[in-house]
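Subject: design request, 233 residues
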């Protein structure tokens, strides 16, 4: 399945993940891996996981960054169509963009600082179709979130994308759009664990949020390296 088709299909996987998480909270007897096993045969999952980690080591982790462009454009359209003079829509659009830029800058900074397992490439979601089509002009982001040219199309890559509808969750996807499941380290949470997540709800300033991105990037790198060692040794 082509990776561009994944994002239509992934809304189903997203609900499966959410259902699994909720089930784990309600009952300790529900095991996420057993649910995944019903979808992907164990032998196929292991084969895909091993080939994917070997591929990633020599190629790219392509990070698809959320930009909220659709929401921003809608707000800008509302502002232009409004019959009453108000800047409420413009302020909301500016706030969304400011928050998203802050998050994306931290994600890029943290991964470049802490992730060492493979090469990195950052593509904004609104340029992802162009990237898949082989376009190289103004499709990737630099540290300042400026669009720059891609010097070469990656021969192979693994995609890291935020789970649709889940602000803190990231998932790895193969180049042909398959969800990578256990034993591949494919699912990562920005807050680290549920305890940190709950604490963050009540004490949002208890920990510098930028540090969470460093911890996430380090976790991704460490888990990739650990699994690579188990496959190659």
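Subject: RE: design request

Done. Sequence follows.
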């Amino acid at each position: 399945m082509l990776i561009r088709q994944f994002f239509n299909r992934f809304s189903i996987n997203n609900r499966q993940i959410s259902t699994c998480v909720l089930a784990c909270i309600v009952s300790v007897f529900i095991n996420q891996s057993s649910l995944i096993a019903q979808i992907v045969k164990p032998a196929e999952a292991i084969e895909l996981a091993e080939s994917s980690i070997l591929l990633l080591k020599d190629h790219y982790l392509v990070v698809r960054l959320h930009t909220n462009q659709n929401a921003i454009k809608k707000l800008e359209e509302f502002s232009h169509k409004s019959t009453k003079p108000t800047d409420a829509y413009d302020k909301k659009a500016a706030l969304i963009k400011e928050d998203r830029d802050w998050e994306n800058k931290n994600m890029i900074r943290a991964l470049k600082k802490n992730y060492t397992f493979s090469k990195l490439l950052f593509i904004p979601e609104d340029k992802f179709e162009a990237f898949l089509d082989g376009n190289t002009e103004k499709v990737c982001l630099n540290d300042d979130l400026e669009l720059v040219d891609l010097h070469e199309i990656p021969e192979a890559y693994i995609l890291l994308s935020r789970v649709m509808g889940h602000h803190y969750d990231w998932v790895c996807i193969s180049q042909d759009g398959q969800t990578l499941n256990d034993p591949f380290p494919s699912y990562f949470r920005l807050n680290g664990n549920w305890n940190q997540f709950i604490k963050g709800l009540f004490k949002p300033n208890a920990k510098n949020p930028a540090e969470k991105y460093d911890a996430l990037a380090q976790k991704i790198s460490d888990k990739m390296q650990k699994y690579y060692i188990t496959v190659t040794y």
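The two ends are 31 Å apart (CA to CA).
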